[in-house]
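Hi support team,

I submitted a single chain yesterday and got back a structure, but I'm not sure I'm reading the token output correctly. Could someone confirm the output below corresponds to the sequence I sent? I've pasted both exactly as they appear in my results page.

Thanks,
R.
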Amino acid sequence: MNKDTPVECHISSFIHPSMEPYLEANGFGRGMILFAIPGYGVLFKCRAQGRPVDLEFGAFFSVLRFIKKSLAQEKIKAVHIHSSNPEFVFALANSTREISRNTERKKMLAQSMKDFQITVSYTPPANNKTLVPPGQY
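Hi R., thanks for writing in. Yes, this is the structure output for that exact sequence:
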């Protein structure tokens, strides 16, 4: 894989409207963050808590950390993030208050921009690899 060609990454998140009583009783969050890196056969899912845009940022920073730590030997320089959350895409493209008022998020984004050339685009849910069965891509 050409290291100058952006690695295609898909992220998503959602909040479950209901939860299995056992999980709820043991403090599991209703939210879920997901990321996929189809070119490397990676699909990740993790429970989390927060607003939808916060969960999407969680998926975003998780995929970048995974690439930096687990795919370090690949020497990836550029990533293209596909998200189906327009609020997240708009926040990154226009540096809205979701970034400017959150100093930790702002610092994490600044560090990520040093590590990678990052592009982000909106992808309809039907084309988001985290939201369709892996057999469809």
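A quick pointer for reading it: The mean pLDDT is 88. Let us know if anything else looks off.

Best,
Support desk
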